[in-house]
TrEMBL record:
Keywords from the UniProt entry: DNA damage, DNA repair, DNA replication, Hydrolase, Magnesium, Metal-binding, Mutator protein
Cofactor annotation: Mg(2+)
Native species: Rhodanobacter thiooxydans
Pfam families hit by this protein: NUDIX_4
Taxon lineage: Bacteria, Pseudomonadati, Pseudomonadota, Gammaproteobacteria, Lysobacterales
The protein, known as: 8-oxo-dGTP diphosphatase
E.C. designation(s): 3.6.1.55
One Gene Ontology term from the biological process aspect of the record: DNA replication
Catalytic activity, reaction form: 8-oxo-GTP + H2O = 8-oxo-GMP + diphosphate + H(+); 8-oxo-dGTP + H2O = 8-oxo-dGMP + diphosphate + H(+)
GO molecular function, one term: 8-oxo-GDP phosphatase activity
Amino acid sequence: MHVMAGLLRDADGRVLLAQRPPGKHLAGMWEFPGGKREPGETPLAALARELREELGVTLQHAEPLVALPWNYGGHELLLDAWRVEAWIGEPRPLEGQALQWQLPALVDMAILTPADRPILQTLIEACSAAASGR
Ligand SMILES: Nc1nc2c([nH]c(=O)n2[C@@H]2O[C@H](COP(=O)(O)OP(=O)(O)OP(=O)(O)O)[C@@H](O)[C@H]2O)c(=O)[nH]1
């Protein structure tokens, strides 16, 4: 299973998190907006569709950040995280999910789905490398 995750950041550098709804795997935990790639879809098309369905935004530009194989109790997935650099529209919770913007360094890792913790860490390191000109 190939799962796309979009890391949207606002002008203050805060990242958008969405809460998984009750009744689903990892309900109540926070994740990056996204979802499963469908057969025949490119990763970018899948990411654009999920962001349109979940947040009502139109993806304009995204860059791959990290793709992480993960195993949730025998359930294998490839979590493919992209930095969403530009989009049109204000993200809205179209599926009833709670949303929050948070500075990456201030996110309590314990609220994230386990697979998202190393992804957020990768984002934090990429931001600090960019800030120091490395
Ligand atoms: N969308 C998304 N899914 C993630 C993230 N991190 C993570 O572990 N996952 C896991 O990836 C799997 C696929 O998520 P999904 O949102 O497409 O699927 P779902 O469980 O909501 O099911 P459904 O869309 O078929 O109803 C789930 O097991 C979910 O917990 C993330 O940041 N974004």
